[in-house]
What we know:
By secondary structure, this protein is of the alpha/beta class. It has 11 helices and 11 strands. α2 packs across α10 (about 250-270) and α7 runs antiparallel to α8. The chain is globular and about 55 Å long. The structure holds nicotinamide-adenine-dinucleotide and (2S)-2-hydroxybutanedioic acid. Homodimer. GO terms for molecular function: L-malate dehydrogenase (NAD+) activity.
Amino acid sequence: AIALRRGATPCSLPLRRLFSSEPIPDRKVAILGAAGGIGQPLSLLIKLIPLVSHLSLYDIAGTPGVAADVSHINSKAEVTGYQSEEQLGQALEGSDLVIIPAGVPRKPGMTRDDLFNINAGIVKSLCTAIAKYCPKALVNIISNPVNSTVPIAAEVFKKAGTYDEKRLFGVTTLDVIRAKTFYAAKAKLPVHEVNVPVVGGHAGITILPLFSQATPGTNSLSDEDVKALTKRTQDGGTEVVEAKAGKGSATLSMAYAGAVFADACLKGLNGVSDIVECSFVQSNVTELPFFASKVRLGKNGVEEVLGLGSLSEFEKQGLESLKGELKASIWKGMKFAHEN
Ligand code: NAD
Ligand code: LMR
């Protein structure tokens, strides 16, 4: 018997869930690169998402240990681990969402583009397998350089005849998370109430936080403060690379960001309304074929790519200055996919 708490209404959340006629769908999430610096904490966080019924972990090394470890957590998702390339099909089959953090990270002194030569091939081969084994899955690309790896994925899917621009996402959530953290601290606002859109791409000046649209707004920041916050957000990845001094780049904050974005994608797939996150997607917002901006997520992935809104003069300048680099990175990715 269910006793109603004093004051609880019949439509309070637990009861609504209990009597809801709509079952929560089973969702399989695959992580490719699951045994890496990002992959391990990401596997942990995805295991905790109640919407996930099957967590499929794939890496070229170390997967059995990670899968055994994570599988002991008493949350809903069943965990399976796959290691050899022959098992990649099994790892992917039936996936609703595939997250890719496979690839090498930066060391001090490197740019994200310096990772291109190794990571382009990794993303290409993993996306070739996605086209074959789970062509309808949403794909979240974390591997750098995101500004090039997302166009590579798009070209691989086009070649395979499976491309659906609504299902391909470059994960830029870490830029949003950094912008929120730095803004809240500087403006002395409660960080959990803060939101800051970040547009453009995911490298250096292509990362453009829109502090003029931050909520809650503030009058306490000078133009110099906004410039410094912008620079810190753009250099956030490098700040971590330098602090780790040769032991890789952001893994823990990235795993958190990856889980936030994956959760949003799953909610969208399940028909939850008004799920909006920034992501690097195929876009008409500017003249560039891919661009990060706010995206409304729905049952088919991208439901709507939202426009930029009104920008400050400083942000307008930032937008114009990022286009050259972003365009070159996009073309580099497309060219690689065509030639290889
Ligand atoms: P890592 O070296 O710790 O882990 C990478 C993992 O990928 C390793 O376990 C490796 O075995 C695996 N791997 C390599 N080739 C593979 C393949 N063909 N198939 C499956 N797995 C494969 O690196 P990391 O710190 O986890 O970073 C991974 C990537 O994420 C890097 O490219 C990094 O630059 C990027 N990154 C992106 C963001 C972002 O905001 N988008 C943030 C942080 C890091
Ligand atoms: C980040 O922003 O932390 C990642 O893109 C990793 C990196 O190389 O900076």
